[in-house]
Structure to design on (688 residues):
């Protein structure tokens, strides 16, 4: 049976389950078998093709996400199919089956929480309910008594003023009566307040007892004897307890994400497994990274590439741990039919071997953390290059064959380390990272080598997090072994603050300077940039209207000095955004932006305007937005656009959205660059 046949059969089985209420029991929330998911179909049509673009102007894609839960064990599958798929490019379509570890854990916590709550003494639960009712009554009595006390205080102040005006016996008598009423009111307030505080304290004790019982689900080890087994038994079935040791369990198009120096987010067609029973930890990923693609008019050829990753260690990922990893990525040289073509394009089969270790230490209840990673990489640029002379190199033939060591091989090292202090109102982090000039990882092709980086950050909050302040810095340097013509250093600093008072406007501000210097034997270059950003906003009412106003200012200033030549740039941007929501389901949004730019001696002004109205009909089942955009750029460039978005709930769990957009751009100086385009998108989503 082929893989395609297996996948087709699995899809048919899932759809059979989805549309069979008898098998799945969707009408009964207590059914041991549940099937849920979403299917999103997205299509786009554009009348123009972008210049030099390889993405087609029109496409259709289908994204299907499904979860089959059997006795609280969630097994998920995802399918992604698009018309952009081509045999001349790497595969875009993908299929994956995986264990939804997050849902499994969530289901277990819910069940264990119910178990812990059910084990509370019934009298405690009843007492807690009674105390809550009593507290509410006393709170109401306290408000009434306080109101009477305030009235007695006003009467006393009035009689006291009358006595000062006329010192008669009648006035004195009234003052004594008013004082007596005030004393009685003060006594009632004090008595009621004392009862309220007593009940409040007892209620806090009851709530604390309930929280302690519920916390057992998060720390089952605190239970003893049969209680531990009972808690685990309630939380998971036998199969659930077994699957709970797998943080990751997936097959198909996976994206293993373990560390920046080894494997991070690349697509792998195969399997990715993580298990963490107790303190033991193991991870395994294996599969195809790239398929073989022969030379064509749209892309260069590429070899079939396979990946193997293994990690072993002790400890949990988010807690203290120590792991050791091995990565092997290899191109299959025989996967391309015409090796001469690839040689002429300088495209060779590569191989990469990495040994790494990673550790983390949590101290003082996770308030202080230390973590780091170190890796050694052996990279072969061309596995078909000339071999070493084993007698001269002193390397055994077995190692040479396994690691593909030859004249094009090189090795280098990389490491990173971070420390963090996490207090209630203060967070401090600092780190260092060094990526050797010859360090390669084919498990993370986006990693930039030849870098030494220092960074740090401080976040501080005040007044119950209403005022937040942050400061960060970053320093980096390249040319670590002096192999480049020049050395570049970069420094960046930043300070930001935000003020968010209750029932008041919010303010945020940021200042961030950046400096880049390149020093070489024959040239020097300095590039400095400064960014200032400030924003304020407020939500308020205007009669029956709910309104939100936001204003923003941004200033960018740059200075580039290359040898003796200077190039200055400056941009100031001003923005205003206004929203109005009416009692009827109608809202309006208005935004305006104006920017002034100056690069060298050339000035450029840009003005943007957007107006949008949104109306919800049929109890918000049909939402429509209509808007207009206008932009003017000096000299002589104008853009006018209209857009219409319509989204309708066709039935429970079914949505249809249509987006239409018309843009007209006029360039009065270079008419050939003017264009008129139409964009249409349709999105159909089904949830069950």
């Amino acid at each position: 049976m082929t893989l395609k046949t297996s996948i087709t059969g699995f899809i048919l089985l899932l759809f059979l389950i989805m549309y069979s209420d008898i098998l799945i029991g969707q009408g009964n929330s207590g059914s041991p078998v549940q099937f849920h998911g979403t299917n999103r179909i997205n299509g786009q049509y554009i009348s123009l093709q972008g210049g030099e673009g390889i993405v087609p102007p029109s496409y259709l894609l289908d994204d299907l996400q499904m979860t089959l839960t059997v006795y609280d064990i969630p097994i998920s599958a995802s399918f992604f199919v698009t018309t952009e798929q081509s045999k001349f490019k790497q595969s875009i379509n993908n299929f994956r089956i995986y264990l939804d570890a997050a849902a499994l854990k969530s289901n277990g916590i819910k069940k264990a929480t119910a178990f812990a709550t059910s084990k509370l003494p019934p009298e405690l639960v009843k007492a807690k309910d009674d105390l809550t009712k009593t507290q509410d009554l006393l709170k109401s009595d306290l408000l009434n008594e306080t109101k009477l006390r305030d009235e007695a205080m006003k009467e006393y102040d009035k009689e006291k003023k009358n006595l000062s005006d006329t010192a008669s016996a009648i006035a004195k008598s009234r003052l004594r009566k008013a004082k007596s009423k005030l004393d009685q009111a003060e006594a009632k307030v004090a008595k009621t307040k004392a009862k309220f505080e007593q009940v409040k304290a007892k209620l806090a004790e009851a709530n604390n007892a309930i929280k302690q019982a519920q916390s057992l689900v998060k720390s089952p080890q605190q239970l003893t004897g049969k209680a531990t087994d009972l808690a685990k038994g309630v939380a998971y079935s036998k199969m659930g307890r077994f699957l709970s040791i797998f943080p990751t369990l997936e097959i198909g198009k996976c994206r293993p994400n373990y560390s920046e120096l080894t494997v991070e987010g690349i697509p792998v067609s195969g399997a990715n497994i993580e298990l963490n029973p107790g303190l033991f930890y193991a991870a395994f990923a294996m599969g195809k990274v790239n398929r073989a693609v022969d030379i064509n008019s749209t892309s260069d050829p590429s070899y079939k590439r396979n990946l193997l990753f293994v990690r072993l260690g002790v400890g949990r990922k988010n807690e203290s741990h120590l792991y050791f990893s091995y990565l092997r990525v290899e191109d299959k040289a025989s996967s391309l039919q015409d090796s001469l073509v690839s040689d002429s394009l300088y495209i060779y089969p590569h191989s990469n071997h990495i040994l790494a270790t990673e550790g983390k230490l949590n101290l003082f209840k996770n308030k202080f953390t230390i973590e780091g990673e170190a890796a050694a990489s052996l990279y072969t640029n061309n596995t078909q290059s000339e071999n070493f002379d084993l007698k001269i190199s002193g390397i055994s033939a077995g190692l040479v064959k396994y690691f593909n060591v030859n004249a094009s091989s090189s090795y280098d090292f990389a490491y990173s380390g971070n420390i963090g202090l996490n207090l209630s109102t203060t967070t401090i982090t600092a780190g260092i990272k060094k990526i050797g000039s010859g360090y390669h990882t084919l498990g993370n092709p986006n990693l930039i080598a030849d870098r030494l980086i220092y960074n740090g950050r401080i976040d501080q909050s005040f007044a119950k997090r209403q005022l937040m302040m942050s400061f960060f810095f970053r320093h980096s340097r390249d040319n670590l072994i002096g192999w480049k013509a020049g050395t570049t250093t970069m420094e960046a600093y930043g300070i930001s603050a935000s003020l968010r008072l209750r029932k008041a406007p919010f303010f945020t501000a940021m200042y961030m300077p950046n400096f880049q210097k390149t020093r070489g034997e024959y040239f020097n270059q300095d590039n400095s940039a400064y960014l200032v950003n400030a924003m304020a906003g407020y939500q308020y009412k205007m009669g029956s209207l709910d309104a939100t106003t936001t204003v923003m200012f941004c200033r960018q200033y740059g200075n580039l000095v290359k040898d003796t030549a200077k190039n200055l740039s400056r941009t100031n941007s001003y923005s205003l955004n206004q929203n109005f929501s009416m009692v009827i389901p109608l809202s309006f949004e208005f935004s305006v932006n104006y920017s002034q730019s100056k690069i060298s001696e050339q000035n450029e002004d840009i003005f943007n305007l957007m107006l949008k109205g949104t109306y919800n009909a049929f109890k918000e089942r049909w939402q429509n937005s209509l808007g207009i955009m206008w932009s003017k750029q000096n000299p002589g460039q104008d853009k006018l656009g209209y857009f219409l978005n319509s989204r309708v709930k066709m039935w429970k769990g079914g949505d249809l959205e249509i987006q239409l957009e018309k843009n007209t751009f006029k360039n009065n100086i270079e008419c050939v660059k003017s264009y008129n385009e139409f964009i249409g998108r349709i999105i159909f989503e089904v949830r069950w």
User: Anything to note?
Assistant: The CA atoms of residues 487 and 519 lie 5 Å apart. The longest helix spans residues 169-214.
